[in-house]
Design a protein that fits this description.
Layout: H1 2-44, E1 45-49, E2 64-68, E3 79-83, E4 91-98, E5 103-108, E6 114-118, E7 126-129, H2 131-141, E8 144-146, E9 151-155, H3 165-168, E10 171-172, E11 176-180
Antiparallel strand pairs: 1-2, 2-11, 3-4, 3-11, 4-9, 5-6, 5-8, 6-7, 9-10
Length: 182
């Protein structure tokens, strides 16, 4: 009789151990997944919520995009998230319109409208400048700026409602937090 009780106690103990082992395995799996997700979001890629309308129509207020934190060498047309110059706690999202070696010109058309355009741009894309933007750019750079190594120039897709490179100039690549994943 005593042997049967010992066997039953052992069976109960084995079941409890198996249950504890399964719970431990599940908790460890969840912990490992959380560590991988955290590592990914801190070092590899991350979601970013769009605030404001400066990137309309490409991105709207409230949209969520994924950015790569690994690849930080943007090319023309990339959408980048970076720290706004002189405001370290503020991040912005804009499109790269000029990279190393590109030359941007600031000039006033006969109609009186001031514009920014890129030298040798086959699309002849022009970005309008407010009087304040024109004054800032010409005071800072003269009539043109050549984008230096380690810099980019950005503009929001909603040209008339964006504070961007036209307001604060070139951006050091080191300020880039990430590049939008396609």
């Amino acid at each position: 009789m005593e042997n049967i009780k010992i066997i039953q106690d052992n069976n109960i103990q084995n079941k409890q151990n198996k249950k504890q082992n399964m719970i431990f395995a599940i908790l460890m799996t969840i912990l490992i997944i959380l560590v991988i997700v955290l590592f990914t979001f801190v070092f590899v890629c991350a979601p970013v919520k769009i605030k404001g309308d400066s990137m309309n129509p490409s991105l709207s207020d409230g949209d969520i995009i994924m950015i790569s934190k690994v690849h930080k060498q943007p090319v023309l047309g990339d959408i980048v998230v970076y720290q706004k110059p002189n405001e370290k706690n503020m991040t912005v999202i804009k499109r790269v319109v000029a990279v190393e070696g590109d030359v941007l010109y600031f000039w006033i058309k006969p109609s009186g409208l001031s514009v920014l355009t890129k030298k040798d741009d086959p699309t002849k894309q022009e970005y309008s400048l407010s009087p304040t933007q024109y004054h800032f750019l010409t005071t800072t750079y003269g009539n043109s700026v050549t984008i230096q190594k380690g810099e980019i120039f950005t503009i929001g897709d909603n040209f008339s409602n964006s504070i961007d490179g036209r307001n604060y100039g070139t951006i050091p690549i080191s300020a880039i937090i990430g590049i939008k994943l396609n």
